[in-house]
């Protein structure tokens, strides 16, 4: 009797599988690198402004919610080892094309808003680096930062149009850069504490400028911190390129989440011990520069602060590129599935890049940056990151419910099962963080709703076009290979 290795199983029937090149070490670096990035740069200062010295707590709570959801993803990915992710699980559970479309388009929009957030964080760190090195006399205003962010998004589009692919080995390098930059922040924080200059007592101090009370303030902060924990769900798109995924995926994903939250909490400890409340409040005028200020204030006699902002730019740029590549290729996939206009699926003949999808997603990102920047009373970074978290919390709610539904359909069980009613608890927590009681600005819901409305309009146009051509109006033809 011949034994077939799990990593040689042909999950896709007669169609050839992708090459399985990722073992546990490469998969771990991919997951950690995907989670780390713009999130911790974007929101740490804001969390300290909301809850004071216990800024580490929202990261911990966001980790709990993310981990519970990750357990559902692990149960689903080991049962359905195809790369379509949340859209596939939604379709398998409910079989409603429109619901599947909404989930898939929400994932696309989350990538666009995440990249827009990263662009603003990059612009703030770049200008901060120029000031620290004496190449600029003072920090530029919002207009200049916005122009830099817009230019960066255009640069990403040009890179995407050249057909640049993301390789696993390149991701390893970028992940090491990200970890190095955050390790500098942590090292500076603990150096300051070792010198007796840090205020360790702030770690248990709760301050509430908005008079929300401990529960509501921490809840609001957790909904923001969740932006820093997203990225683990992207790893399910690598399942067809992972060796023996049913065995190594569970422990690798959970280990990656654990590493990320430890780094985040140590970063938060460094922020609140090095910076005073008044310094944090002042720095929050440019949210993406909080970690740069920790390095600058905590180690003024070392040249680290002159290098750090550019390391941060490099790490954040990687987040933006991955998100925009994902968004443009999901648009391409959905166009080829006949659920979006086929124009969005056009590919350039020379570079073989989905150029219409790239242009469309970039246009949405540019519009978002300008729309939020025009509101002087709004913080660009915190609003765009909050939209990302809101969209993904909605997606995660559906995925957790789908996990419960699919337990009863008699499918082939995977090698991993989320304990008991864990998916139900995760669904309730995600849905709770979606609601208006977390004190989320109404602008966040307006942006998210506007983006989804764009998708519904495109879906309706496709429905009207397909109606006169085929008996089916619109629907996914091959959901297993959406990407």
What's the topology here?
Layout: H1 24-35, H2 38-51, H3 56-79, H4 86-94, H5 97-132, H6 142-161, H7 168-194, H8 214-229, H9 245-274, H10 277-283, H11 290-298, H12 304-336, H13 355-373, H14 380-406, H15 422-434, H16 442-467
Number of strands: 0
The whole-angstrom Rg is 22 Å
Proportion of β residues?
under 5%
- Oligomeric assembly: single chain
From the N-terminal CA to the C-terminal CA, the straight-line distance is 36 Å
Query: What is the number of helices?
Result: 16
Q: Which ranges are low-confidence, i.e. pLDDT below 50, for 5 or more consecutive residues?
A: 1-18
The class by helix and strand makeup works out as: mainly alpha
* Order of secondary-structure elements: HHHHHHHHHHHHHHHH
Which descriptor suits the 3D outline?
globular
- State the helicity in percent bands: 55-70%
Largest sheet: none
Mean pLDDT: 84
């Amino acid at each position: 009797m011949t034994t077939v290795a799990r990593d040689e199983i042909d999950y896709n029937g007669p169609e050839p599988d992708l090459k399985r090149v990722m073992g546990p070490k490469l998969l771990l670096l991919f997951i950690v690198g995907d989670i780390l990035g713009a999130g911790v740069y974007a929101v740490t200062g804001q969390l300290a402004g909301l809850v004071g010295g216990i800024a580490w707590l929202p990261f911990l709570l966001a980790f709990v919610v993310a981990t519970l959801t990750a357990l559902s993803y692990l149960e689903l990915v080991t049962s359905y080892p195809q790369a379509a992710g949340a859209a596939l699980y939604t379709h398998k559970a409910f079989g409603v094309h429109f619901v599947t479309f909404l989930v898939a388009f929400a994932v696309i929009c989350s990538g666009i808003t995440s990249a827009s957030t990263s662009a603003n964080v990059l612009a703030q760190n770049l200008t901060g680096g120029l000031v620290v090195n004496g190449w600029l006399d003072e920090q530029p205003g919002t207009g200049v930062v916005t122009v830099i962010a817009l230019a960066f998004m255009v640069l990403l589009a040009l890179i995407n149009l050249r057909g640049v692919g993301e390789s696993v080995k390149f991701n390893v390098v970028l992940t090491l850069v990200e970890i190095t930059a955050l390790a500098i922040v942590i090292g500076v924080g603990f150096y300051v504490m070792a010198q007796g200059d840090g205020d360790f007592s702030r770690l248990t101090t709760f301050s509430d400028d908005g008079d929300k009370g401990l529960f509501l303030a921490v809840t609001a902060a957790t909904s923001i911190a969740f932006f820093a924990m997203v990225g683990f769900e992207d790893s399910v798109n690598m399942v067809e390129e992972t060796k023996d995924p049913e065995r190594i995926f569970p422990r690798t994903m959970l280990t990656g989440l654990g590493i990320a939250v430890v780094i985040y909490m140590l970063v938060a400890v460094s922020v609140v011990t090095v910076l005073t409340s008044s310094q944090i409040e002042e720095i929050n005028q440019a949210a993406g520069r909080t970690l740069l200020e920790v390095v600058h204030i905590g180690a003024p006699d070392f040249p680290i602060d002159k290098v750090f902002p550019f390391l941060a730019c490099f790490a954040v740029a990687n987040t933006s590129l991955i998100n925009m590549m994902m968004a443009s290729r999901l648009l391409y996939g959905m166009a080829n599935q006949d659920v979006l206009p086929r124009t969005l699926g056009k590919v350039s003949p020379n570079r073989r890049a989905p150029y219409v999808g790239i242009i469309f997603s970039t246009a949405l990102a540019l519009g978002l940056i300008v729309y939020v920047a025009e509101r002087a009373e709004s913080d660009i970074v915190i609003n765009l990151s909050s939209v990302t978290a809101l969209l993904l919390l909605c997606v995660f709610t559906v995925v957790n419910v789908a996990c419960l539904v699919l337990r009863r359909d008699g499918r082939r069980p995977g090698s991993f099962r989320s304990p008991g009613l864990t998916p139900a608890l995760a669904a309730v927590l995600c849905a709770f963080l979606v609601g208006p009681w977390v004190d989320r600005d109404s602008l966040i819901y307006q942006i998210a709703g506007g983006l989804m409305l764009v998708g519904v309009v495109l879906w309706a146009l496709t429905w009207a076009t397909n109606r006169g051509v085929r008996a089916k109006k619109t629907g996914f033809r091959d959901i297993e290979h959406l990407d």
